[in-house]
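Below sits the subject:
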Amino acid sequence: ADSTRSMTGVRATYRRDFGQLVANGAGDTAVVVTDLTDGSRLTGLNLDFREAGGGRLQDEVTVSGRLTDGTRPSAILPVARPAEADPDDPDPTPFDVTADRIFLRGESFFEATGQVDVLRDSLVTHSDALEYDQARATLDLTGRASLVQGVDSIEGRRVLVRLPDDEIREIEAIGEGSLVSRDFDLESPWF
């Protein structure tokens, strides 16, 4: 038994030979997995967990499926504290993700597809797909991508955010880009 995680749902099947746990909700009852140590939470109609091994270097989890009330999969995903962070600094704010499908690999990578919405502090993003890779320090939004932080916003077919040390340092809009800031507005078919 794993005392660091809890799961609720309607049914679950574990296949030891494959290292796979498949859990399902039904109707308005979701599968909910909560990590009791870091507060992360996954919610959705279906969950497929695969343990590292058999060609997988890290555990992988996919959550998908809408409930009958239209609720989509969601995840609260903590961000690891940088190694050089002051121990008295507060923990980084987690990502709050809603999408049609959410996939996680290990502790520092996730992707989401289908009407992806993300909230984190004053950061709000919308896109068709999103990939976050903490090791590469990137947040990559594709397909009708927009990012709003405070009064500033940027849009494009792709918006690439570089986050070294968990802070936004660079944002690049690619294809039909638009930048609106308190200081200026910029539109370009290709920048």
Q: What stands out?
A: The CA atoms of residues 35 and 103 lie 16 Å apart. The longest strand covers residues 109-120.
